[in-house]
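Budget justification note: compute hours in this period were largely spent on complex prediction jobs such as the one shown. Inputs:
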Amino acid sequence: MTATRTDSDRERDRQRLTRTWADPQGFFGWFSHVDHKSIGRRYLITAFTFFLLAGVLAALMRIQLARPDNSFLSADLYNEIFTTHGTTMMFLFAVPVMQGLGLYFVPLMVGARAIAFPRLVAFSYWMFLFGGIFLFSAFFANAGPDVGWFSYVPLSLQLYTPTKRADVWAQLITFTEVASLAVAVSLVTTAFKLRTPGMSLSRIPVFVWAQIVTSFMVIFAMPAVMVCSTSLILDRLVNTHFFDPGHGGDAPLWQHLFWFFGHPEVYIIFIPGTGIVSTIVGTAANRKVFGYPIIVASLALTGFMGFSLWVHHMFATGLPHLGEHFFTASSMMIAIPSGLQIFCWIATIWSGRLRITVPMLWVLGFFFIFILGGMTGVMVGAVPFDLQAHDTFFVVAHFHYVLIGGAVFPLFGAFHYWMPKITGRLLSKRLGTVSFWLVFIGFNLTFFPMHILGLNGMPRRIYTYPADTGWGALNLLATLGAAVIALGVVVFIIDAISSLWVGAEAGDNPWAASTLEWATTSPPPVFNFIDIPTVASSEPLWDNPPDQPVVVGLRTDVRDVLVTYVADADLDHRVEFPQPSVWPFLTALAVTGFFINSIFTPWAVVYFALPMFVTMTGWFWPKSGEDTGTRRWPFRARTLPKPNEAFAPGVAR
Amino acid sequence: MTSPRVIDVSTLPPGAFGHRSLMWWGTCGLILIEGTAFALAIGMYLYYWTHAAEWPPGHTAPPRLLWGTLNTVILLGSAVPNQLTRNAAERVDLRSTQRWMVVALIFGIGFNVVRAFEFGGLNVKWNQDAYGSIVWLLLGLHTTHIVTDVLDSCVLAVLLFVGPVEERRFVDVSENSVYWYFVVLAWLPIYAVIYLAPRFL
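Corresponding output:
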């Protein structure tokens, strides 16, 4: 092909594409958005809001524990607060914020015009939002869950929790699982089928690989928690006996089901974090990340092995020793792929020309904190040590080092790194550095003493402790540390908001990075790329030759998207994407009604069957008179090829 | 700025069947999710069994074979119109697709009717013990899939009759058939666990 594109071609296409792909404006239009960047932004902002709310809850707990025999919070309220804190951080912050990054950046990074199943993604956002509103409404109505974020039976059964608090927890799970499963399927399909020509599997950016592995983990792990939370609701609502030992039920089964989800959940949160780290390290060191195949293999291996560890959360339940040995061994083994990745990052930094940017600072913080968390992980993976540390603050320290180190630090790095793409403005280096050091120092002040408190015997989930335990000083230190973290987060928020006005213009590629999201404007246009760039390596913006071809010929008057083959991203076919629609929002409303009502009555399934059916049909039904650009019956000839059929060109569309 | 070369995709087909289509990937995602849920529920059943002194516990009779077996036959039989629907869709033959879709729907609706009798023949209530709970959960999970898939197929069939029939709708019909296969195949282990295992193992 020798034809070329002139600037006037591009300008004409830009105007047409803007018209075709624009989401509706105005208040009502806001409920119909399907652009992955719009939804991704909402995910990020909403999840960050929940992070702040759960952070406030954490601060309340720290105030209560700051000195012995404190009466700032009642025992009952303390139970609600630590449960809501954990539940929010896991289900309403950590998973959705990582998926939000994926929603925004995966289509851009693979050179796609949109995300697969855009309406499903819109629906998922509303489910996530409504679930979060539901949890906090219950919390403020004194009906927040109070049985721990893993809601163990028999405590959460009707006999011991006669209020609706445990049901609120169980249905929040259902809301957030529906949302994250929908996003997972969309991300996998996007990463496998919507890649730009040339982006074979071995050229997929590491961040996208991390999102692929995470999405598969979501697909296999989340059904477990849906099965167990549904069984819990049934036990509480219609007197089934899944977890009731008096009638043949089994309490440890709850723990098996929960942790079959709950342990992979840790990796669902952590793997995107490592994807962020690989991205930032490569850019900051100005070289392709060292050992790309090793890193991708480690991600996949972590994904598989993440499913063979769940019993290490249950060492104190009296399982057979042989089983415990197996899970100790597999817990030690999963340190191997994580260790491989860390060595690859060190090699990248060593052999590159490292610039200490603010995102890189957060990554360095990640190294320090996450490795410490990994070390205590190896400790609690050993049965004898675990039996000593079980249910103490040592465990609290361990998993905050892992989760905040492994996910929150990379995430703050990601905010600094990618916000300029989203808003078009750079964040301040000075404020970024200040907020990093505040959070880093505050974090270690808060959580390091908890190791010692745990070894000294302080149990988790106690609302106060007597003075003669001698735990007061370290607890006070932890509380002061929490205040420093809060200050650091406030500085970050000031930085993020003020950058919208005073931040320097970012330009297309402020970090001189290599992946395709930097090949378009900041913020990107609604259709992502005027001419879809193709790639000749995994670092296209560094390696592409000047005459690297671009894709043309997609229609500009309808939402035409290019589909490619999975392995080598060879040209396959084109497909029309759906228009914006309010039906996903209405469907989410109907499903929300069903979920909430089913806390109170099994007849909810009858009451809400019709609204759900009507809204889903409305979603699916083509608008009459809408010119979607696809052919309508009667056709003269078949143009859709079968799986192994080459397309015969020349058949008129 | 130098003018880059171009790859012109304007002559690519407007869709494709099978694993090439996005719908296939979406359907497979759904199948993996729900297949995992089925597998876990079957795992729960076996877990209770290994922890029980006798099975079914407390001299409860196993479920009646008649309705479950009849339904297994109906479901296996439905594979024939299901495949013929899929073939017709992939030929983009509207008349034939409409015809076989209606036949497949009759099988689906028949299955749901017999399912009501199945629940009646379980010989146990969900609130009797954990055994009853898990049997009802397994059957309930599968019923949910059958009911929603039949409703969804009804909508698709109505759309094929009243139009407007867009070309891409045939890909939807084809993938709908793939999902029906999943519902059929998922039933076989559930049938074996609920009906055969307590009788013959």
